[in-house]
Amino acid sequence: MRRYILAFLLSLSGAMLGFGQSWLQEGATWYHAYAEGNSGVLGYVRTTLNGDTLLNGIMAQRLSGVLYGYSGQSQQYFTEEITELLTTGTPDLALIWTGSEFDTLFHFGAIPGDRWQPPGAVSGDPELAVLDTGHTSIDGAWLKYLVMDLGPLSSRPSPDTLFERMGFLGGYLDVWSSYILDGGFAPLRCYSDVDISYTADDTPCDMILQLDVPRSLAQPISLYPNPGSDNVWVNGALLTGPLRTRVLDVRGLTVWEKTLSDPRMGLDLTELAPGYYSIQGATNTGLSFTAKWVKQE
To answer: Residue 216 above 60 pLDDT?
Structure first.
């Protein structure tokens, strides 16, 4: 991935090193769910642009995040600032400051087969690999997306989808903390900037008490067969009663939806084309899950 960084730095050499990053849009704001099982904290993280700073002669922008949470241990609501991210980039490349250098965060110009390590990784650490790419329109903005294999050490279901401007659908902007360390950061709820407004589902952007990715269900829930072809079953002993299910494609659009009277019933997905999907389920008791599923040819 160093070749991408080198190309980026060379592009800056003719721009007086005062070049502001262009992968971030004016007014960019993210809402990510948050669920940390060890401390019993549920909530969300709101991340916004918060000014510029100069690093090694390169103008970077600051992404400031605030955790709005509820602690099950203390039974109190709280707010907490999280680590600030310093990023810069071009339309195709987003870089993040690791404390000593800029490293690759997202490479939107990548093609299937390309891969890179999360920022701060060392030799031998897992890589992110591009499986597929495409384009979609959100509020009239034409955005590229990449279907990504997160690697064997990821704490999140893989593959996931990386969108221009928005980042990953399944985790936070800080890829290492979100996917490798499992720091509590959960899927993207909402994203907006001066041009577009994206909402993942009906969950309010700023809802605190919501089991977006319940840690109590993270292990018991599985889909089988996965990969599969036409029918898929949900395996989860804690799921009882009617199960509202829906299937989203790599663009985040709902392509199949049904309420199962019994969670043990299979989902007939014959009509769907081969590809990568996200299956969501929720019960009347408030338990919910999101899992990735691959449909084969």
So the answer is: no
CA distances to 24, 42, 191 from 195, in Å: 12, 30, 11
Angle (nearest 5°) at CA 105 between 102 and 109: 110
What's the DSSP call for residue 1?
A: -
Domain 215-295 has CATH 2.60.40.3080: yes
Residue 39, by phi and psi: left (phi above 0), alpha (psi -120 to 50) or beta?
alpha
Domain ranges of the chain: 2-199, 215-295
Structure tokens at 173: 């902007």
DSSP 6-74: HHHHHHHHTTTT-PPPSSS-TT-EEEEEEEETTTTEEEEEEEEEEEEEEETTEEEEEEEEEEEEEETTT
Find out whether 225 and 234 touch, Cβ atoms under 8 Å: no
Q: Give the separation between CA 106 and CA 92, rounded to whole angstroms.
A: 8
User: Model's pTM, two decimal places?
Assistant: 0.69
Instruction: Tell me which amino acid residue 290 is.
Output: T
The average pLDDT across 200-229 equals: 65
